[in-house]
Design goal:
The complex is a heterotrimer of chains A (301), B (326) and C (325). By secondary structure, chain A is mainly alpha-helical. Chain A has one domain (50-295): Orthogonal Bundle (MetI-like fold). In chain A, 74% of the residues lie in helices and 0% in strands. The longest helix of chain A is centred in the middle third of the chain and has 37 residues, at 90-126. Chain A starts with a helix and ends with a helix. In chain B, 35% of the residues lie in helices and 25% in strands. Chain B has helices at residues 2-5, 52-60, 87-93, 105-108, 115-127, 131-144, 150-153, 163-175, 193-210, 221-227, 245-250, 255-263, 302-306, and strands at 8-21, 24-37, 41-45, 68-77, 80-81, 98-101, 181-185, 213-218, 230-235, 238-244, 311-315, 318-321. In chain B, the strands form two sheets. Chain B has an eight-stranded mixed β-sheet with strand order 6-7-8-3-9-10-12-11, sandwiched between helices. Chain B has a four-stranded antiparallel β-sheet with strand order 2-1-4-5, with helices on one face. Chain B is globular. Chain C is of the alpha/beta class and 325 residues long. Chain C has a single domain, classed as 3-Layer(aba) Sandwich (Rossmann fold). Helices cover 31% and strands 25% of the residues of chain C. Chain C has helices at 55-62, 85-91, 113-124, 129-142, 159-171, 189-206, 217-221, 241-246, 251-259, 264-267, 302-306; strands spanning 4-19, 24-40, 44-48, 70-75, 78-79, 96-99, 177-181, 209-214, 226-231, 234-240, 312-314, 317-319. In chain C, the strands form two sheets. In chain C, strands 6-7-8-3-9-10-12-11 form an eight-stranded mixed β-sheet, with helices on both faces. In chain C, strands 2-1-4-5 form a four-stranded antiparallel β-sheet. In chain C, helix 4 (129-142) crosses helix 5 (159-171). The chains are: A mainly alpha (301), B alpha/beta (326), C alpha/beta (325). Chains in contact: A-B, A-C, B-C. Chain A binds chain C through residues 190-192, 194-202, 205, 209-210, 213-214, 296, and chain C through 63-65, 89, 93-94, 96-98, 100-102, 105-111, 119-120, 123-124, 169.
Chain lengths: 301, 326, 325
């Protein structure tokens, strides 16, 4: 509302210049609204999967194996995106698969972001030996190959939802710790932190009330970008066969299943693949957009 | 007296510059006129947000695009209107005919090039000098700014120099092409008091040697007293008074000028209370009608709230924009 | 003579300079090198000097933001460097507050003004929310701001208003001493006077003591009862403010006054009376021997290069200079 008025006012002063800034405006916001739409849709499907899915995602129908999507020759309206080797509906499986992808990433983010943030703030603010210890642990975590560790965990604990979450969390907090420590170091020497110390505030209070609220923005940006990455990682684990075990439909697992028949039935792998790509891209775009918006140095103009 | 015969280098007429932001049009500079002569220093004085820096940037046409735009006015440099020049022609003017010194010597030098390379850049670009000739010009510029042992210093990187030395290097870059006009935007604000005194004395000497016209942008009347021949006082995008320096200190006409001079702390007299102006400068988006200073003015009358005052001449080269004078 | 509130004796703060991978110590920066002064209740002392003089480091030691290398800081007769943390928290912290140079950076941008002013109360008292709210309201009025503004964020204020908020926060606990670190340097000339007058009024009202850190003598003269001029970690001249401004004895003080804002002779055309110092303040890593000021001093003798002058009393002020003898 506000924005429209001002554009008008500006336009009145110099009508011939109005088109260019507006163009940029629309383009900039497109990279916000489209990803937001994709991610909202993802959450919506995950929540209402029962209602939205036209078929039971695990119902086998051997007569209707490898049916192509409805828009292709031989396809039927019954299975909009076709069926797989066991005659299961691809669309329904993808709708249910969004539940697994989303719940895995949310669980992992909840764990990694909180562990990483606490580690980062404590290391950055307290400094000294605490910092040295915490940051060495971080370095070691970052030196491990994550996929290898995940495979190992799957072997030890057996595949399952919580194994996937554990596998992705056990090293996933380290980048957060590093980022948050950097941000904290910047804040540690600001005047307002000095002022809080002058007022007698304890270290805990300073970390909670003064440092944390000022790193929330960076955290949100990183989390947004992590959603896409984690969905990709979950898919990769499923593809390797150590994800959430079948028959539960997971996007990565679906891509893997379609691999052997890719020459005859490309749709089994392709549709989940496209969705994975779309979600990852959306996460990255939204993260970039948020960074531009939330960074106070860029907020002025 | 000599100055009255000197040639006018720059003449600005009715300059208006605005920034178009989401919150509305910010009238940063709203119709100002002034001139500078050869070998003369004009002080552009005012508080933050009064438009003095935007004026400097407008003269060089270096406003941040697309938000900032020059809406109206003429900027005549030796009779040529800079606003009529193409972008390419304007580039040739910058650095060569008009140069600028910015406030912070820490950020106005590029940390990855040596001092010599940074001074050589405008020399090569604008004067087309190469090799030994360029080197001589660089050393001459360093000598002009009294930088000791210039042959050695030109191999230094900015971080190896102190703040005062760095600002001298910035001055050397600005003077390297013998400009006609130098715009100095608060060049001494970031410097310590004793270093500031050195720098000002140095610039007076540079001006005597080169006859360059200087526009000295500052908020500090102490600096004005030492440095400038004439002063233009700005308030909320307008010039409110312009006069020769001695005159303005002896007899300021505009209540704002008087208030500014009175609120400068003095070492030679003890006061019980400092003179202060109540309130704050107006928002440039929402300017009050009539005279811009009237909401804070102790002498405001009915007419001040209704109509903008026009220029009145009250003495030789002394103009005031105030209803009191009529 | 009023009661002495704070006494600093021979304060030193040295930082090691390290180099290379193994952090080998290659020297020391003597940021503050043997500084002594005192502040009486209800009075103002200004520490004046250029950047690198050590005035901010001295203030940080008093605010417990830096651990002094040597020397003592006596507050109401107790040495705060030797007090246990629990007693510091109750007997010292609440009584010594600060206002910093930049009003925006000294306030957490994510907190409302109410919470900013309330922080010292929340940390140091067990007051109820209602009590704190009414105190915040009272403080805002005291510094000339509208109580409704308590719900706003710092970026909505101008520099002058921001500094008023900082003053309100410093007053919250009824402190005895407020350290003012360049309190008006970031402000416009016409606003500076408002803040200085406010500080003066508050001092008279509450019998506050101020330690003012400044680079410009003229700006703080109005507030100061006494002034100490610092150069490269040492005090070169220290005494009653009026006397020091009108009759400076140390050559550095003279140059500083001459370079400072506006005096009668500055307004005249250059008549050669002004002292313009050559050179710059040397690095505190390798300070010159003898008197630190001698390489720039217009009247230095051989003795100045060898022997560091001890501060001696001349009339009403102490001067550390051989030439005054």
């Amino acid at each position: 509302m506000m924005r429209v008025q001002i554009t008008k006012r500006t336009a009145n002063v110099r009508p011939r210049k109005k088109s260019r800034p507006r163009h940029i405006h629309v383009l900039k916001n497109l990279t916000f609204y489209l990803p937001l739409l994709v991610l909202t849709l993802l959450v919506f499907t995950a929540v209402f999967a029962d209602v939205l899915a036209p078929h039971d995602p695990v119902a086998v129908s051997m007569q209707e194996r490898l049916l192509p999507p409805a828009f292709m020759e031989g396809g039927t309206k019954k299975y909009l995106l076709g069926t797989d080797q066991l005659g299961r509906d691809i669309l329904s499986r993808m709708i249910y698969g969004s539940r697994i992808s989303l719940s895995v990433s949310l669980a992992v983010i909840a764990i990694t972001a909180s562990v990483g943030t606490v580690m980062g703030i404590v290391a950055g603010y307290l400094g000294g030996a605490t910092e040295a210890l915490l940051m060495r642990i971080t370095d070691i975590s970052m030196a491990f190959p994550p996929m290898l560790l995940a495979l190992l965990l799957a072997v030890v604990f057996g595949p399952g939802f919580w194994t996937v979450v554990l596998a992705l969390s056990i090293l996933g907090w380290a980048p957060y710790a590093r980022l948050i420590r950097g941000e904290t170091l910047k804040l540690r020497y600001t005047d307002f932190v000095a002022q809080a110390r002058i007022n007698g505030a304890s270290s805990l209070r300073i970390m909670v009330k003064h440092i944390f609220p000022n790193i929330v923005n960076s955290l949100i940006v990183v989390i947004t970008m992590a959603v896409g990455m984690l969905i990709l990682a979950e898919a990769a684990l499923s593809f390797l066969g150590v994800g959430v075990p079948p028959p539960a439909p997971s996007w990565g697992y679906m891509v893997n299943e379609g691999r052997s028949v890719i020459d005859r039935a490309w749709w089994i792998s392709a549709f989940p693949g496209i969705v994975i790509g779309l979600v990852v891209l959306s996460g990255n775009f939204l993260g970039d957009w948020l960074r531009d918006k939330l960074d106070p140095r860029l907020r002025q103009l | 007296m000599m100055q009255n015969r000197a040639k006018t280098v720059l003449e600005v007429e009715g300059l208006r510059t605005s920034f178009f932001t989401r919150k509305g049009e910010v009238k940063a500079v709203d119709g100002i006129s002034f001139y500078v002569r050869e070998g003369e220093t004009l002080g552009l004085v005012g508080e933050s947000g009064c438009g003095k820096t935007v004026t400097g940037l407008s003269l060089l046409r270096l406003l941040p695009e697309p938000a900032g735009r020059i809406l109206d006015g003429k900027i005549l440099l030796d009779g040529i209107d800079l606003l009529a020049l193409s972008k390419k022609e304007m580039r040739a003017v910058r650095g060569k005919v008009i140069s600028m010194i910015l406030q912070d010597p820490m950020t106005s030098l590029n940390p990855v090039y040596t001092v010599g390379e940074q001074i050589a850049e405008p020399v090569r670009q604008q004067q087309g000098l190469r090799g030994e000739k360029a080197r001589e010009a660089v050393i001459a510029a360093l000598r002009l700014l009294h930088i000791p042992s210039p042959e050695v210093r030109l191999r230094d990187y900015p971080f190896q120099l102190s703040g005062g030395m760095r600002q001298r290097v910035v001055g050397a870059i600005a003077m390297s092409c013998n400009p006609r006009l130098l715009i100095a935007d608060e060049p001494t604000t970031a410097l310590d008091a004793t270093i500031q005194a050195q720098y000002l004395a140095l610039f007076k000497e540079v001006q005597r040697k080169t006859n360059v016209a200087i526009i000295f942008i500052t908020h500090d009347f102490g600096v004005v007293a030492r440095m400038c021949h004439r002063v233009a006082v700005m308030y909320a995008g307008k010039i409110v008074e312009t006069a020769p320096t001695e005159v303005i200190f002896r007899q300021p006409w505009h209540p704002y000028t008087a208030a500014l001079i009175n609120s400068v702390p003095r070492l030679d007299r003890k006061v019980e209370r400092l003179y202060s102006i109540k309130g704050q400068p107006p928002s440039l988006i929402n300017l009050p009608p009539g005279c811009r200073f009237c909401p804070r003015c102790p002498k405001a009358r009915e007419i001040c709230r209704e109509r903008e005052p026009e220029a009145r001449q009250v003495g030789s080269e002394h103009f005031v924009f105030c209803w009191q004078v009529s | 003579m009023a009661e002495v509130l704070l006494e600093v004796q021979d304060l030193k703060k040295h930082y090691p300079v390290t180099r290379g991978l193994l952090q080998k110590t290659i020297g020391t920066v003597k940021a503050v090198d043997g500084v002594s002064f005192q502040i009486e209740r209800g009075r103002t002392l200004s520490l004046v000097g250029e950047s690198g003089a050590g005035k901010t480091t001295a203030a940080k030691a008093i605010l417990l933001l830096e651990q002094p290398t040597a020397g003592s800081i006596l507050f109401e007769g107790k040495d705060i460097c030797r007090l246990p943390p629990a007693r510091l928290k109750t007997e010292y912290r609440p009584k010594v507050q600060a206002v910093q140079q930049n009003p925006w950076s000294s306030m957490n941008p994510r907190m409302r003004v109410r919470d900013i002013i309330a922080e010292p109360l929340e940390v140091n008292t067990r007051w109820k929310k209602k009590q704190i709210d009414s105190r915040v309201e009272e403080l805002l009025q005291q510094v000339g701001l509208m109580p409704e503004w308590a719900e706003r964020y710092p970026h909505e204020f101008s520099g002058g208003q921001g500094q008023r908020i900082a003053v309100a926060r410093a007053l919250a606990l009824n402190p005895a001493l407020i350290v003012l670190d360049e309190p008006v340097s970031a402000l416009d000339v016409s606003i500076r006077a408002q803040i200085m007058n406010l500080l003066k009024d508050l001092q008279d009202l509450y019998n506050l003591s101020y330690l003012v850190i400044a680079h410009d003598l003229a700006t703080v003269r109005f507030l100061s009862h006494s002034v100490a001029i610092m150069y490269l970690g040492r005090i070169v001249e220290y005494g009653e403010g009026e006397e020091l401004c009108t009759n400076p004895l140390h050559p550095y003080t003279r140059a500083l006054i001459s370079a400072s804002a506006m005096t009668a002779q500055n307004m005249e055309e250059d008549n050669g009376a002004r002292i313009i110092l050559g050179g710059e303040m040397p690095s505190p890593v390798n300070p010159p021997c003898g008197c630190h000021f001698h390489p720039r001093c217009p009247a230095a003798t051989d003795r100045c290069a060898v022997e560091a002058p001890a501060p001696k009393l001349y009339g009403t002020h102490y001067v550390a200079c051989h030439l005054c003898e």
